[in-house]
Amino acid sequence: MRKFIVGTRQSNLALTQTKMVIDLLQQTKMENAFEIKEISTEGDRKLNVPLAGLGSGGVFIQDIEKALLNETIDLAVHSLKDLPLNMQDKLVIAAIPTRENAADAFLGRNNVKLKDLKRGAVIGTSSMRRAAQIRAIRPDLKTKWIRGTVESRIEQLQQGDFDAIILAVAGLKRLGMDEEVITEQLPLDTFVPAAGQGALAIQCRKDDKELITALHQINDHDAYRSIMTERQFVKLMDESDQAPIGAYAYVEGERIILHATIASVDGDTFLKETTIGSSSNEVAQLAAEKFIKQGAKELIEAAKKELNS
User: Fold this and answer.
1) What's the pLDDT score for residue 60?
2) Tell me: the pLDDT tens digits for 12-34?
3) How many CA atoms lie within 13 A of 114 on its CB side?
């Protein structure tokens, strides 16, 4: 019987998520053996460079995708928000398991909440979106880039390098750290997360029909529809996926509801829309049209110019 080699990043969170996926597959009564292969990625090797400075080419997944294409691994487990909007032609997202909480978590040193931070306090984040959303609400605060694993970022906070940091709730929950470290969960309607946040993507080769059939058993149809809506919207607005765009969709009956935001880098301009429809393409297109009418394309180009200057 075939043994499946599963590729993943080397962090504790990535390994935890990979083991969760293997467990889900084993619960479907798959009798195949699984072997985990840890892969070093460019994003993990260059911790001294801000994420924005690494470009938009999927710095956390390129080395893993290369292993898929070389057939040294059979499938890969990714944090879905790490996947670029345009994937390799020979690869496919074969499954998106049930999505975890998609919200952002605010971790304040000594549990100080966002509204109680002193003027000039410094918040650590590696996300332009999060930085812009913070500035839109608290322009008196400062943001500073932070890199590293979840554990190392929390350590930097505790050491006093920052007054607060922002991480994804999902990762903290999967690591069993959420109740211990989260000061408050930021509201989804104000701090709209990145497309795909809270979800995992199981990627494999398009021609591996046996594996695709097996992976479909752990696919959550509603999560898949929601996330494809988010990704299609972002792709329509900024195919390079560099600008401060938030996109969060969920399924309610037959409807898909998309909350989206687009901001200037300084947070002074903050556009927000909610769009409802019956298909991913319809909702994404309607949302894009709303934002374009408000000048979002110009806002995005200005943000990218500032980023790359």
Assistant:
1) 74
2) 999 999 999 999 999 998 999 99
3) 23
Q: What is the CATH number of domain 230-308?
A: 3.30.160.40
- Which amino acid, one-letter code, is at 38? E
Q: pLDDT value at position 46? A: 54
163 belongs to the catalytic site: no
Domain boundaries, given as residue ranges, for the chain: 3-97+199-219, 104-185, 230-308
75 three-class SS: strand
> Among 264, 105, 276, 115, which Cα is nearest to 188's?
105
The CA distances from residue 188 to 92, 145, 249, 262, in Å, are 29, 22, 10, 14
Higher pLDDT, 42 or 84: 84
State the pLDDT confidence band at 54, using cuts at 50, 70 and 90. very low
Residue 242's pLDDT band, with cuts at 50, 70 and 90, is confident
In angstroms, what is the C-alpha Rg of the chain? 19
**CA–CA separation, 219 vs 201, rounded Å?**
10
CATH number for the domain whose boundaries are 104-185: 3.40.190.10
Q: Which residue out of 44, 82, 163, 238 is catalytically annotated?
A: 82
- For the stretch 37-67, what's the b/e string if a residue is b when 16 or more beta carbons lie within 10 angstroms of its beta carbon? eebebbbbeeeeeebbeeebebbbbebbbeb
Identical fold, 3-97+199-219 and 230-308: no
Q: Would you state the CATH architecture of domain 3-97+199-219?
A: 3-Layer(aba) Sandwich (3.40)
